[in-house]
C-alpha cells in the first residue's frame, strides 16, 4: 500500500511520535511512503535548532535520521514554515533573517504537494491538528 503522511503536531506532542512510529511500521511492513508532509506546527519537527530535553526523545533528530536513511520525500509547507520562523538558506536570505534552521533532507514547498501526494497514495494518514 502507498501512504502519504501529514504531520500537523509539534515535536513535543504525542501525535508526532505516533506519526514516526506509523511511518517506521509502514516501511517495515513492506509498504511505500510517497511523501511526508509537515504542516502547521509540524514544521517544527524539521527545524535543525530544536533542542529536546535530555530525558526526552529528540523527535526532530529522529525524523531527520528516518527520512535520510530511507531516502523519503519530506516536504515542509513553506507558508506554515515562514509563519513559524522555520527557514532554509534561500528564505533566510530573501527575508533578511540572520540564520537558517532548515537543512537537508527537507524541502520547502506549497500545499499543492500534499494534494499531489494524496492523489498518488492509496491512503492519506494525518497526525495532529485541530
Short note summarizing the structure:
This protein is of the alpha/beta class and 130 residues long. The protein has helices spanning 14-28, 59-70, 78-83, 89-94, 112-120; strands spanning 2-7, 32-38, 74-77, 107-109, 123-127. 37% of the residues lie in helices and 19% in strands.
Lateral strand order in the biggest sheet: 4-3-2-1-5
Distance between the termini: 27 Å
The overall pLDDT, averaged over residues, is 96
* Portion in beta strands: 15-25%
Biggest sheet details: 5 strands, parallel
SS field, number of helical segments: 5
- Rg is 14 Å
Tell me which oligomeric state these chains represent: single chain
The low-pLDDT segments are none
- Class from secondary-structure proportions: alpha/beta
Order of helices and strands: EHEHEHHEHE
Tally the beta strands.
5
Shape descriptor reads globular
Helix share of residues? 25-40%
Structure description:
The protein has 130 residues and is α/β, with parallel strands linked by helices. It has a five-stranded parallel sheet with strand order 4-3-2-1-5, with helices on both faces. Helix 1 packs parallel to helix 2. The protein is globular. It starts with a strand and ends with a strand. The mean pLDDT is 96.
Please outline the helices and strands.
Layout: E1 2-7, H1 14-28, E2 32-38, H2 59-70, E3 74-77, H3 78-83, H4 89-94, E4 107-109, H5 112-120, E5 123-127
Parallel strand pairs: 1-2, 1-5, 2-3, 3-4
Helix pairs in contact: 1-2
Amino acid at each position: 500500500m502507498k501512504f502519504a503522511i501529514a504531520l500537523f503536531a509539534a515535536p513535543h506532542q504525542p501525535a508526532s511520535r505516533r506519526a514516526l512510529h506509523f511511518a517506521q511500521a509502514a516501511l517495515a511492513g513492506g509498504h511505500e511512503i510517497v511523501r511526508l508532509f509537515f504542516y502547521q506546527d509540524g514544521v517544527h519537527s524539521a527545524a535543525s535548532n530544536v533542542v529536546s530535553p535530555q530525558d526526552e526523545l529528540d523527535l526532530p533528530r529522529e525524523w531527520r535520521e528516518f527520512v535520510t536513511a530511507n531516502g523519503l520525500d519530506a516536504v515542509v509547507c513553506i507558508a506554515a514554515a515562514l509563519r513559524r520562523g522555520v527557514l532554509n538558506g534561500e528564505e533566510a536570505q530573501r527575508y533578511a533573517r540572520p540564520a537558517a534552521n532548515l537543512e537537508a533532507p527537507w524541502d520547502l514547498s506549497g500545499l499543492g504537494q500534499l494534494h499531489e501526494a494524496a492523489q498518488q497514495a492509496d491512503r492519506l494518514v494525518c497526525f495532529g491538528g485541530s
